[in-house]
Amino acid sequence: MDSCFSLADTAFAYACNSQGLAAVASAASIDFLRPAFVGELLTATARVKQQGKLTGVYDIEIVNQQQKVVALFRGKSHRIGGTITGEV
After folding, report:
1. Is residue 88 part of a domain?
2. Element containing residue 61 per DSSP (H, E)
């Protein structure tokens, strides 16, 4: 189940920083709805529920290859100022 949280957290990070404004997580929770097995293909889809000037709420759904929901993640973000350039 750690892989589900990591996948969801990564999707959340991409989503809350996708507008090029630097943001960090202020909260995160996950509900595991069914087991995820080793070797199973998991897909995370992030949706913006609310994005204000500084704070945002994002829902991430993780499904397996049969499109069955494995976990639901909710992340809350806080913009910290600055921009994301995409350069490493």
Report:
1. no
2. strand 55-63
